[in-house]
């Protein structure tokens, strides 16, 4: 659970809800917004596609915010954390190959584009998201290592998609790991996210079947007095050292370049997603004193500041020592081990969800992190960081990696294209 890979700082400001105004149906608004000059949210507009009463309250900014499906990169990578998420892997059905996969990705892309725009499915919509706006919905698609053998595209399989090595903290359930296809769904409304999940599953039809599926959550945008780094289920601020799109080397760390790369051409502007279900041993963690917890992480629990002093964003002083000669930031502290300058510059963009899947018979919570991280090359991003953590991270005794996957996520689809078209029709 490398700190360097920590989640994107919540990018959406807490906005006041829009004042009451005359409301119209989603179709009417999308068709007339340009003429009226109405703009809702930072990236677009949308309202519930049910006919609304004439004096209904307008959507809040949370409901109306919209992400774009078509673009250079797929959605769901650089956007801020979303309040609700679903991760789902599919295996192609017996007999299904390249032709069926292409048709499936075409269906999925069409559905994702409509739902992200706040529109219903083209047919058989379930109405689960009726009355809601886009709610920042994102849908992201990726290919697993096994996909290429199933579709006769072995020569197009990137070498970066080779299976991850084994790690000492792994206790992996193979039935909940990997898969031919991977879909990440995120939204700031639970019903909007579920609606998309159900639509994707229905679109799979007879071409693919669900291999595994996981549900996650984060803090809802606007739940705090001001935008701030999110907390995980251990109560720690989780996202302080994430790479930022404003940094000059962000793209080269996170995205596959369009030229001069060993990757196949279809991966241009894409990224690699490492997905891990990390169970937090919360009963053991919560028995620790506050001081002990902070020593495990290397940061103050209250505000995320390094134990060496300052604020959350202050550079950590790894050489600062106490009067007894011991380092202020312990040598096995999670934050010390995962610093890029301690790992040859290895960096990953972490965009996780927390999860809680109930309570075991002995009262132990099945809860933790659906860890999702992005990088241009997992062998230079996740793998060296996790190997370093394997050799002595103080946090390792309080977590357990229970499922794992690695997926090649191609660049975004241009208007008129579907995701993966350059692979499947190239």
From TrEMBL:
- Protein species of origin: Streptomyces fuscichromogenes
* Extent of Low complexity compositional bias: 10-21
**One term under GO cellular component:** cell envelope
* Keyword flag Signal: yes
Q: Which Enzyme Commission number(s) are listed?
A: 1.11.1.-
Which family does this protein fall into? Belongs to the DyP-type peroxidase family.
Identify the stretch(es) annotated as Disordered: 1-24
Name of this protein: Deferrochelatase
Keywords attached to this Swiss-Prot or TrEMBL record, sorted alphabetically, are: Heme, Iron, Lyase, Metal-binding, Oxidoreductase, Peroxidase, Signal
What this protein is reported to do is described as: Involved in the recovery of exogenous heme iron. Extracts iron from heme while preserving the protoporphyrin ring intact.
MF terms in GO? ferrochelatase activity; heme binding; metal ion binding; peroxidase activity
Q: Name one GO biological process term.
A: iron import into cell
């Amino acid at each position: 659970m490398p700190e360097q890979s920590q989640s994107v700082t919540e990018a959406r400001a807490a906005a006041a809800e829009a004042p009451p105004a005359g409301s119209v149906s989603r179709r009417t608004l999308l068709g007339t917004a340009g003429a009226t000059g109405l703009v809702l949210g930072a990236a677009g507009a949308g309202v519930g596609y049910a006919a609304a009463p004439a004096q209904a309250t307008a959507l809040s900014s949370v409901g109306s915010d919209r992400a774009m499906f078509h673009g250079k990169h797929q959605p769901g990578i650089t956007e801020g954390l979303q309040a609700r998420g679903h991760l789902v892997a599919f295996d192609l059905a017996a007999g299904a190959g390249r032709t069926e996969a292409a048709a499936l990705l075409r269906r999925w892309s069409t559905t994702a584009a409509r739902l992200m725009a706040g529109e219903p499915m083209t047919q058989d919509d379930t109405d689960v998201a009726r009355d809601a706006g886009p709610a920042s919905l994102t849908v992201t698609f990726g290919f697993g290592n096994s996909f290429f053998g199933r579709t006769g595209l072995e020569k197009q399989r990137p070498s970066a998609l080779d299976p991850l090595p084994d790690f000492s903290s792994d206790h992996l359930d193979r039935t909940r790991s990997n898969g031919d296809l991977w879909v990440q769904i995120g939204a700031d409304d639970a019903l909007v996210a579920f609606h998309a999940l159900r639509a994707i599953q229905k679109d799979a039809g007879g071409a693919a079947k669900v291999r595994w599926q996981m549900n996650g959550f984060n803090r809802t945008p606007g739940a705090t007095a001001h935008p701030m780094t999110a907390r995980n289920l251990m109560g720690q601020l989780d996202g302080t050292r994430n790479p930022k799109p404003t940094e000059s080397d962000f793209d080269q760390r996170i995205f596959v370049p369009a030229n001069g790369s060993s990757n196949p051409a279809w991966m241009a502007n894409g990224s690699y997603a490492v997905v891990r279900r990390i169970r937090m041993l919360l009963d053991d963690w919560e028995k620790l004193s506050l001081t002990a917890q902070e020593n495990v992480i290397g940061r103050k629990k209250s505000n995320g500041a390094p134990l060496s002093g300052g604020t959350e964003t202050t550079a950590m002083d790894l050489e600062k020592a106490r009067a007894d000669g011991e380092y202020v930031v312990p040598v096995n502290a999670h934050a010390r081990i995962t610093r890029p300058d301690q790992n040859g510059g290895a960096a990953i963009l972490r965009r996780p969800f927390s999860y809680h899947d109930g309570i075991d018979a002995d009262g132990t919570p099945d809860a933790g992190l659906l860890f999702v991280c992005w990088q241009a090359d997992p062998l230079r991003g996740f793998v060296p960081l996790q190997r370093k953590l394997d050799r002595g991270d103080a946090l390792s005794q309080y977590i357990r990696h229970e499922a794992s996957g690695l997926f090649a996520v191609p660049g975004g689809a241009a208007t008129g294209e579907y995701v993966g078209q350059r692979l499947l029709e190239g």
